[in-house]
Amino acid sequence: MPTIYQLKSRFQDLLRPICRNLAARGVTANQVTLTALGLSVLEGLLLWLFPGAFLPLILLPLVLFVRMGLNAIDGMLAREHDQKSDLGAVLNELGDVLSDAALYLPFALLPFVPGQIVIGLVVLAIIGEMTGVIGVQIGASRRYDGPFGKSDRAALFGLCGFLMALGLTSALLYQVLFGAGLVLSAVTIWNRVRAAIREKQAS
């Protein structure tokens, strides 16, 4: 199913000159991964300490975009500049789920947001990423099937943060948006399980 992740190759093409420059300066993939995690945790702390405040909310789309760029760059540094490592693989997977939790759980503190749905979204996000990794464990590839992967979650929360910063606090609006994300997250888990098993059986 279609997902924003499918645009990744074009995004990487735009970032490749930056990646080459960083590699020439001795920046490592693991350093970029940790930078993305640190940025996410810092933004998450702002959202948690100042729930509903304009500045953290309006910064969220920018932080999510920068995080997406850093995630693309660390992968290119690893693959294209001979920086692959076991530690890097662990940091990459853990960094994604920790960043998601740090950035998205503070939304559950807002009085006009369905907290249970937000927590459910984060839980399903973790399960979804774990399901993608399990594909490797059974002999398939790392699965990134949609329709609601990491980039799609970022788009949803970035949009919600922007709308909240503009003063839109309709409980019904966020119930619908986050509820749709919850359903799509469950579908994503199912699609990744099914795709991994089919890939393994076809090999």
Question: Please, could you describe this protein's structure?
Answer:
By secondary structure, this protein is mostly helical. The chain has helices spanning 8-24, 29-49, 54-80, 86-104, 115-137, 150-165, 171-202. It contains seven helices and no strands. Helix 1 packs across helix 3, helix 4 (86-104) packs antiparallel against helix 5 and helix 5 runs parallel beside helix 7 (171-202). The two termini are 22 Å apart.
Helical content stands at: over 70%
Using DSSP, what is the number of strands? Answer: 0
CATH topology: Four Helix Bundle (Hemerythrin (Met), subunit A)
The CATH class is Mainly Alpha
Indicate the CATH architecture: Up-down Bundle
Number of helices: 7
Q: What are the secondary-structure elements, in order, as H or E? A: HHHHHHH
Kindly give the count of domains.
1
Per the principal axes of the C-alpha atoms, what is the gross shape? Answer: globular
* Rg over alpha carbons: 17 Å
So, the CATH homologous superfamily? Answer: CDP-alcohol phosphotransferase transmembrane (TM) domain
Mean pLDDT over the full residue set: 94
Broad structural category: mainly alpha
Strand content: under 5%
Largest sheet features = none
The end-to-end distance, rounded to whole angstroms, is: 22 Å
Q: Which ranges are low-confidence, i.e. pLDDT below 50, for 5 or more consecutive residues?
A: none
